[in-house]
Amino acid sequence: MSLHYVALGDSTTVGVGDPMNGSSTTDLSGAGARPGEGWRGWASLLADSLASSHRVTFSNFATSGATVPIVATEQLPETGDDPIDIASLIVGVNDTLRSTFDAGRIRDHLNQIADELTDRGALLLTVRFHDHGKVFGLPKWLRRPLWHRIEQVNVIFDDLHTRYGGIRLDMADYPEVYRRDFWSIDRLHPGERGHRKLARAFADELAARGLRIDVPPDLDCAYRPPSRWADAVWLVKEGVPWVGRRANDLLPWAARMAITPRSSPLALPPSSNAEVQRLEA
């Protein structure tokens, strides 16, 4: 069986956090990084696993720093117009970190992307995001508004899953997501262990749907979480400068949100579209 798998998204799908050289203290800024530039990641691990049983064509169009509009206007056109069997779409966290956050625009772009991909036969692979602020250890005044935005994105992906079907992983269902060894040094990108877990979870779901996978992604790895000293050094060299670059964009919004009552997450109308199985054995 031949499979055409395309991956769209941001730095997590690029593979940032899972360096090919195995270093746990690599600079994770990944600015402008494209797949294959020193990173492996969950999508490549999944593609390798699929290739253990099928003839696989894998194209990774993800870019570091990508937002939902970038995926819609830049990455999606790169996929061409050929039929697709599997398409992963993991994006939205970068949108939540910007003062230009617009849930309506995100919803429209994601529906456009999903509509085109499924029209071409793709089974969608998506996630429901966990509480990133809990992983970062953010203070409550900053964690609350960030989680509110993440939940708005999650509601959009909930509706996307209802309308277009596919496989969706709820990251909060995995206890290890809140363990330090799941993450790279920046706690934003999965480390090798996290990437392997993500690849394995998708492979298990595909196998449960009847897709043959002879060699599932291996969960064993040599990765060890950074020491407290390495965490501290990275914070000074990379983390603080990142906050400084984003301060004018993110912190004023977070401060305003911290002193205003929490509003309800974005409500989306229910869809009557039934889930369609798009992979044939």
Descriptive overview:
This protein is α/β, with parallel strands linked by helices. The chain has a single domain, classed as 3-Layer(aba) Sandwich (Rossmann fold). It has helices spanning 11-14, 42-50, 68-78, 93-96, 103-119, 132-136, 140-164, 192-208, 228-258; strands at 2-9, 55-60, 86-90, 123-128, 167-170. It has a five-stranded parallel sheet, sandwiched between helices. Helix 2 crosses helix 8 (192-208) and helix 3 (68-78) packs parallel to helix 5. The protein is globular, with a radius of gyration of 18 Å. Residues 23-31 and 268-281 have low confidence and may be disordered.
Q: In terms of per-residue confidence, which ranges show pLDDT below 50 for 5 or more consecutive residues? A: 23-31, 268-281
Alpha-carbon Rg, integer: 18 Å
- Straight-line distance between termini: 8 Å
Class by alpha and beta content: alpha/beta
Q: How much of the polypeptide forms β-strand, as a percent range?
A: 5-15%
Beta-strand segment tally: 5
CATH architecture: 3-Layer(aba) Sandwich
Number of helices: 9
Helix content: 40-55%
CATH topology: Rossmann fold
* CATH level-four homologous superfamily name: SGNH hydrolase
Mean pLDDT comes to 81
Order of helices and strands: EHHEHEHHEHHEHH
Shape: globular
Largest sheet: 5 strands, parallel
* Strands ordered across the widest β-sheet: 2-1-3-4-5
The figure for the number of domains is 1
Q: Assign the CATH class.
A: Alpha Beta
